[in-house]
Amino acid sequence: MKNSMLYCKVFFLFMFIIMYMPRVYAEAEWQAASGDNIPNNAFVGGNEAPPEASSLFICRAVFHQGVHTGKARVGFNGCNIGWGDAEHTVSNYEVLLHNDNFTWVAMKDGKLPQGAVLGGREHSPNNENLYVCRAHYENGIHPGKIRAEFGGCHIGWGGKEILIKEYEVLVEKNTNTTQTQPAPMVEDIDLQSASLAIKNFYDTQGEWAGVFYMGDILQMRVEQGNTRRNNNNSVFHVEYRYIPIPNNPQGRTDTGIDRRTFTARHNQDGSYSIIKMGDYMSARF
């Protein structure tokens, strides 16, 4: 019973993080898994060193409130990821499913190709995207995670987190990702100027109360009626000290203290807009 309740909690946390994960590059299909129960149509991303040479499947798991990609196979009893200079096994995870359009592109030094498959995100002020990569190490090929700031592909191996400078990035061919005007990425948001502009906006409206604390900015998908779609202009929830806020400029903290909150939109022209009570305000910054 306790294990079942724990699984449910992990599952709902995983779904919450995935729903609010920025969707900028190629998307892929993932299936929930646990322990050694790997789906038959899981995508093979690498292999152990000979003579065993067991297939390694690409997985991702919630860990320390982020979503991290790694490797799974029978015997791991979970998804093995690299995090904090160590290798960790997470028993409840998701597995990437096979897609004929997947291919690998050789890269090095943190470079990322167009159409890279998005696998997860960091838990950090900027919620950096993590993409699927793999690297040769100790005669095997090991799936892992990458973002530009890493300077390489991070894999878990032998109880440690290893950084490999030369690697391959998983790409989906013939993606419909925008080539000329990609949606703004969370990393592009200037948190300092954004917070100042929001303060100035509420000062002008006579609604500002207290100091604004910029927390995480999470991209969301716009909902219209019962239809959920990706908007060309990225819409962001802004968290108050890592506490998710509602879609309006008023609310309370977890201690019941009144506060001013908001939802902001990052437009493709680089500007930002305040969304208040579902209306698009004219504030630009």
List the helices and strands and how they pair.
Elements: H1 2-19, E1 30-34, E2 44-47, E3 55-63, E4 66-72, E5 79-83, E6 86-90, E7 92-96, E8 102-108, E9 118-121, E10 129-137, E11 140-146, E12 153-157, E13 160-164, E14 166-172, H2 191-205, E15 217-220, E16 222-224, E17 227-229, E18 234-238, E19 250-252, E20 258-260, E21 263-266, E22 272-276, E23 279-280
Antiparallel strand pairs: 1-7, 2-3, 3-4, 3-7, 5-6, 8-14, 9-10, 10-11, 10-14, 12-13, 15-18, 16-17, 18-21, 19-20, 21-22, 22-23
Overview of the molecule:
The protein has helices spanning 2-19, 191-205; strands at residues 30-34, 44-47, 55-63, 66-72, 79-83, 86-90, 92-96, 102-108, 118-121, 129-137, 140-146, 153-157, 160-164, 166-172, 217-220, 222-224, 227-229, 234-238, 250-252, 258-260, 263-266, 272-276, 279-280. With 285 residues, it is mainly beta. It folds into two domains: 2-172, no CATH class; 186-280, no CATH class. The longest helix has 18 residues, at 2-19. The model is unreliable at 6-26, 176-192 and 201-285 (pLDDT under 50).
Estimated helix fraction: 10-25%
> What is the number of E strands?
23
Number of helices: 2
The gyration radius over C-alpha positions equals 20 Å
InterPro entries: DM9_repeat
